[in-house]
Amino acid sequence: MAKTKKASAPETPVTKNEAPRKRAILFELENVAAGGRQVAFDVMKKIMADKGVKLTPFLFSRYVLSGSLKKGLGEMLESLGKGRLSEEKLASEVADEVKSALLRASLTLDPGVKKLMARASAEGVAVGVLSCLDRDTALQLVSKLKLDGDISTVLPYVCDGKAYPSADAWMKLGKMMSMSPGVCVVVATCSRSSKAALSSGMRCLVIPDKYTSFQDFGGADYVTDTLDESAIDKIFSLLDER
Q1: CA distance to 1, 42, 211, per residue, from 35 (Å)
Q2: Strand, coil or helix: 129
Q3: Residue 31 burial (CB < 10 Å; 0-12/13-18/19+)?
Q4: Of 99, 138, 167, 194, which has the fewest beta carbons less than 10 angstroms from its beta carbon?
Q5: Which run of H or of E encompasses 237?
Q6: Residue 18 in this model has a pLDDT that exceeds 80
Q7: Secondary structure (DSSP) of 6-67
Q8: Among candidates 185, 221, 173, 196, which has minimal Cα distance to 67?
Q9: What is the rounded CA–CA span in Å between residue 152 and residue 38?
Q10: Contact, 196 vs 226, CB < 8 A?
């Protein structure tokens, strides 16, 4: 991948030089490609246990996935009577440890994503990924998953305490790829990501995991349990509709 000049900027995209393409598939790097949400839960569960807090899937889904990590941790601690703990320090500790864990873990590329990449390459469809990780960590994860040759653009979108991902994040990724929202299909894993994509004018297919399956996916073009052949066919049919 060719690096842009402002390599130190946290949101500097990394774009590969290639022939112009007219359609694009965008997805969340950590959660779609590698099951990163489970890694995040395991890391947070251990950190919270050390603070005397038992993190359950319910608490994780309700507070941590609701938006800003710092805000969610604060609300969770308050609800559990643990308001004396600093949500700011905890959020920083969690974020740092999750980054390290993603690179340490024996993660492999989701088989469905591998098939999706192959078909995108065969049909001349560009692929871009959005990440909440910093630039260096995101690129290391891309390399770890052996996606270097498949992805056109990686956009590390450091949210600095704001809810992630936002419509602005998806729009920025599309813009960096010279793609209008109308020719992009987003593969998301949670309601916030899906609604952000739809708000940006993109189509969206959702693959919920066990932490997000209860969420409202109203408006999404398609919801599926796995990225199987029928789901991949649906992604390309959505692309063909534009």
Answers
A1: 24, 12, 11
A2: strand
A3: buried
A4: 167
A5: helix 229-240
A6: no
A7: -TTSTT--EE------S-EEEEEIIIIIH-HHHHHHHHHHHHHHHTT----HHHHHHHGGGS
A8: 196
A9: 26
A10: no
Write the single-letter amino acid at 209. D
Per cent of the chain over pLDDT 90 is 61
Higher pLDDT among residues 113 and 85, named by residue: 113
Q: Report the interhelical angle of 111-122 vs 229-240 (nearest 10°).
A: 40
Q: What DSSP letter does each residue of 54-120 carry, written as one string?
A: ---HHHHHHHGGGS-HHHHHHHHHHHTT-TTS-HHHHHHHHHHHHHHHHHHS-----HHHHHHHHHH
119 within 8 A of 236, measured Cβ to Cβ: yes
